[in-house]
User: Fold this.
Amino acid sequence: MTERPIQTIDQLIDGIQKGMVPRQVRLFAAQGLLPVSREDLLRLQIILSSDPDGELAALANASVSEQPEEVILAWLELDSIGSLELDLLARIRREDEKIWAAIAQHPNASDETLRMLARHGTPLVQDIVITNQVRLLACLDILEDLRANPQVTKIVLRRVKEFEDEFIRKAAEQTDSLELPEAGPSVEESLQALRAIGSHIPAEGELAVPEAEDMALAREAEARGESIFARILLMTTHEKIITGLKGSREERSILINSRNRLVARAVLASPKLTQSEIESFASSRSVSDEVIRLIAQNPRWLRRYSVVHALLQNPKTPIRIALHLLPRMNHRHLKQLGMNRNIHPAVRQQAARMYSRRR
Assistant:
């Protein structure tokens, strides 16, 4: 009777995630002593870098960190690498720009990993992420992650805006929901499996990252307690955009408060948007600065005196824009603005001076 072959690497990885692999086997793998191929050994060591056993995790982490860059890059050319290995490798080798770039290009990189790379990546990594339009369409939140990157370049910001403009234009033109590619692979389930057995997943770092969900909408939902909020909070970013473009007035009044620029811009691009809604948004202190700027940059909306007046009374309106709009106010409103202590002192003082000159 022939002896049964040892477990496959995939079985070992699955067993590690379930906490079922003996410590001695994990120790051999972490030390590089397990009789498997170099490629498979690297997979195991990357998984073990977050092992609940601190000694094993340190050994595995050191083994991966000591690998020459060219060895890791050659390994990353394999299609068989899983999303979990790619995510953990990015956390281990976070200072290696070329490795992060290769992970960003890998077809098995999860949406969560791409978002992490977008939040913290160098200009090279940013360029790779913004160029992959199929993945951007499948996970629109990556655009906000790029904006939140402290290292983001002006070129990438310009390309983000161009992508958003094109996306909003296409979404507004289509009568039905905009067809998007399927979402990329997710790594969250695998990470949760590791956390469940006490694994320590290396943190992204101390850099500021965007909120995981739209907290502005969540807070308003809690305050108002309306069922429509609960439905909107469960929407994907794409669904919020489509609802902003084609939904009801009540839905627009909620979504305009989103901190996701694409969602707010979709509301302002809605063909159903009324003049009274614009006036309401222009005077609102809960909308983002981006919404105020977009309203102030639209000549059609600025033809309405009430919109200009609303912008001038809103302390969120940028000083440069407010000063430019002041000459359009009539005598009575200049006097009111000159006494309005809720607006910026520079705007208030200029309004008072203009009122005095017109008397």
Q: What stands out?
A: Residues 1-6, 206-212 have pLDDT under 50 and may be disordered.
